From TrEMBL:
Belongs to the universal ribosomal protein uL22 family. This is Large ribosomal subunit protein uL22. PANTHER family: CHLOROPLAST 50S RIBOSOMAL PROTEIN L22-RELATED, LARGE RIBOSOMAL SUBUNIT PROTEIN UL22M. PROSITE patterns: RIBOSOMAL_L22. InterPro entries: Ribosomal_uL22, Ribosomal_uL22_bac/chlpt-type, Ribosomal_uL22_bac/org-type, Ribosomal_uL22_CS, Ribosomal_uL22_sf. Keywords: Ribonucleoprotein, Ribosomal protein, RNA-binding, rRNA-binding. The gene is rplV. It comes from the Bacteria. One of its GO terms (molecular function) is structural constituent of ribosome. It comes from Hoeflea phototrophica (strain DSM 17068 / NCIMB 14078 / DFL-43). GO terms for biological process: translation.
Length: 129
């Protein structure tokens, strides 16, 4: 028997990729995600290639995964893909301590993040707008 198939969260002309538990703060990751929002995938990949941020290479891998999902799983045209959404979520935070003077200590937080990238296929007339 089995359970009924759940409806697809995305539209038919969209595909996504998710990178979980990235060792960077959500604020820093959102700066890099903001670079590629709304851009064509070719231009977004070029921006990430030459970005000086450490996490840019991981964001690039996630974008390439979303493009591959669009091509292989959903039969979308790679040349007409646009980064529709790139959003960041909080994950766990590791707590550590740092020894300070006079027998005290201070807390160090090491945050992790999640990254979701959604690519959408657009027609030629939509790109000009």
């Amino acid at each position: 028997m089995g359970k009924a198939k759940t409806e697809r969260r995305l539209k038919d002309n969209e595909a996504q990729a998710v990178a979980r538990t990235l060792r960077v703060s959500p604020q820093k990751l959102n700066l890099v995600a903001g670079l590629i929002r709304g851009k064509k995938v070719g231009k977004a990949l070029a921006e990430l290639e030459f970005s000086r941020k450490r996490i840019a290479s991981t964001v690039k891998k996630t974008l390439e995964s979303a493009i591959a999902n669009a091509e292989n799983n959903h039969d979308l045209d790679v040349d007409s893909l646009v980064v529709a959404e790139a959003y960041v979520g909080k994950s766990i935070v590791m707590k550590r301590f740092h020894a300070r003077g006079r027998g005290r200590s201070s807390r160090i937080e090491k945050p992790f993040s999640h990254l979701t990238i959604v690519v959408r296929e657009v027609e030629a007339k939509e790109e000009a707008a």
